[in-house]
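Long-time lurker. I teach an intro course on protein structure, and each term I like to show students one example going from raw sequence to a predicted 3D structure in token notation. This year I'd like something fresh instead of my usual example. Would anyone be willing to generate the tokens for the chain below so I can use it in lecture? Attribution to the forum is fine with me.
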Amino acid sequence: MVFLVVVLSVLAGVHYYLWHRLARATTRPGPVRGRLGLVAVGLFALVVVTFVGQRVPWLSWLAWPGFLWVAIMFYLFWILLALEVPRAVAGAVLRARKPAGAPVKVPAGGSSEPAVPGDAPADPGRRLFLGRATALVAGVGALGTVGYGVTRALGDPVIERAAVTLPGLDSRLSGLRFAVVSDIHLGPLTGRAHAERIVRMINGLEADVVAIVGDMVDGTVEALGPLARPLRDLESRYGSYFVTGNHEYYTANGPGEWVEELSDLGVRSLRNERVEIRHQGAVLDLAGVNDVTGATAGDAPDFGKALGGRDESRSVVLLAHQPIHVAEAARYGVDLQLSGHTHGGQMVPFNLIVPVQQPVVSGLATVDGVQVYVTRGAGFWGPPVRVGAPPEITLLEIR
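-- Reply from a regular --
Happy to contribute to a lecture. Here you go:
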């Protein structure tokens, strides 16, 4: 309840601020300002209903207008905030200049103290001009940024190619290639074509192993099963593997039904377990753990079960949705961890906030002696917008 109150308070505060800068500062008192106030209240309600209703089928039609407004609201807020200083400077200049024909303030009591032109109020017309100019700049900036972000989010993912050197890797395994994809987020805004495009692009990479590292869906099999069916066409030499992300635990029926559905589609789920990838006479251990969110549903990650008792002369690659798993992975001698979850920040400046929770935002890094590759994900969550973090499918080669 405390979290809910805080979130609603922040949303209400942001909408009030936007009304203040985009309505109150750009209009004179009257019915127009009042109607704009009602619009602000309506947009606040739209945001709340959109987040609450994204799991309610008959409210799914609100997803597009609701999440687009969330993105526009976000960038309007930050752009207007950045304009506060220049706006204040411009306002101070207007107040310091005596408008033509304006009366000069006379000190009370008829004092002989000289009049001070700087005390004259700024011309209301100039204040309106300043407010409208600020609103125009913010509006154009926000709409342009969101428009660009929509084209990136709904366009083809970028193919990122990465080579990772694993000390001690059996030379016969050198050149083994993983197609890594995460955060597909099948849902009401994506459609079946989203999965078809991802499958087509992965198959074009001719990878040895396909790794789907969590957050594949935002709903139940009943609602989204048809959207996932293109996954049955995934092609690779040694199979396709999946581990749960946090969003699999947000569905009404939990991750179990999706594990079964994926099995029917030819994708094997690694639930705190490992398999052997045999390549050119050598063996690589491929392990997977449940997402940390599973702890709240009695389905926690179990590194001992996934990695315990293995032949330590073999190299091991771990699939784990969140990069924070690396702290535990280091204790078990994992050579490479493949993760997602962060979306690369999805919308700048969220990329600056992700490090507060995760050790890696995107790309390859070494944490606690473990190499971690974090993909930005092939989909989006919430607003269908990506700014500064294009969607990604990775072709990763170990050497």
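Some talking points for your students: DSSP finds ten helices and twelve strands in the chain. Residues 2-98+123-152 form one domain.
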